[in-house]
C-alpha cells in the first residue's frame, strides 16, 4: 500500500484549528460559568482545581525543553517558565493565580495545600506532565496549542465575571489581563514551530493527536469540577463543600 503523503502546512493548520470543537469552552460547566450560573462555591472549586494545573505548567514546559535538541526552540520555550514562575515569588503567573484565589474567597493556605483539588484533576494534570516528559518534544509543543483557542475564551471570561460576579475582587483579574496578549503571541509562534517541524505524515498525525489529548485533559478537569458541583445530590460525602465556604453543613443548600 502506498505511503500517505504528508499534509501541506495549510492542511495541517486546518486540522489543528478544527480541534477547537473539543476545547473546554464548550463544556457545560464553562457555559454555565460564563452565563452567570455558578455560585461562589463552584467558582472557588474551579479556581482551586485550576491552581493544580497552573502549578504544573513550568514542570511540563521544562520537560519539553529537556527533550528538545534545538537550542533556538529551547531558548524561546524557556520564557514560558520565567513567565509562569516569575523572577520572584511576588510576580508571575503563579503569583497572579494566588491573587485570583484570594479574590474569590480562598485563603492562600488552602490554595497552596491543595485541599480542594479533586482526584480527577490530579489524574488529568499528572498525565499531561507525564505525556510531555515521555513523548517527543514536538508532541509536547503541539499539545500546548490549546493556546490557539484560549485568548478569545479568556476575554469572554473576564467580561462575564465582571458582569455576573461583582463580588469577585477586581485584583483577581490580573492573571487574565496579563495572560491574554502573551498567549496570543505564543500561539502564533508555537503553531509555526509545529507546522515547520511536523514533516512526515506520522509526525503530523502525532501532533494532531497530542492536541486532541490536551483538549481531553482540560475537559477532564472540568468533568471533575462539574461532578463535584452536583455533590448535594450525592450526599456531599467526598467533596468537603464546607471547606469551600458552603453556607450549610455538608454542602446542603
UniProtKB/TrEMBL annotation:
Single GO MF descriptor: pyrroloquinoline-quinone synthase activity
Gene encoding the protein: pqqC
Function: Ring cyclization and eight-electron oxidation of 3a-(2-amino-2-carboxyethyl)-4,5-dioxo-4,5,6,7,8,9-hexahydroquinoline-7,9-dicarboxylic-acid to PQQ.
The entry's keywords: Oxidoreductase, PQQ biosynthesis
Annotated Thiaminase-2/PQQC domain residues: 17-223
Family named by the database record: Belongs to the PqqC family.
Enzyme nomenclature, EC number: 1.3.3.11
Name under which the protein is recorded: Pyrroloquinoline-quinone synthase
Stored NCBIfam families: PQQ_syn_pqqC
GO BP terms, alphabetized: pyrroloquinoline quinone biosynthetic process
Pathway where it operates: Cofactor biosynthesis; pyrroloquinoline quinone biosynthesis; Cofactor biosynthesis; thiamine diphosphate biosynthesis
InterPro entries linked to this entry: Haem_Oase-like_multi-hlx, PqqC, PqqC-like, Thiaminase-2/PQQC
Superkingdom classification of source: Bacteria
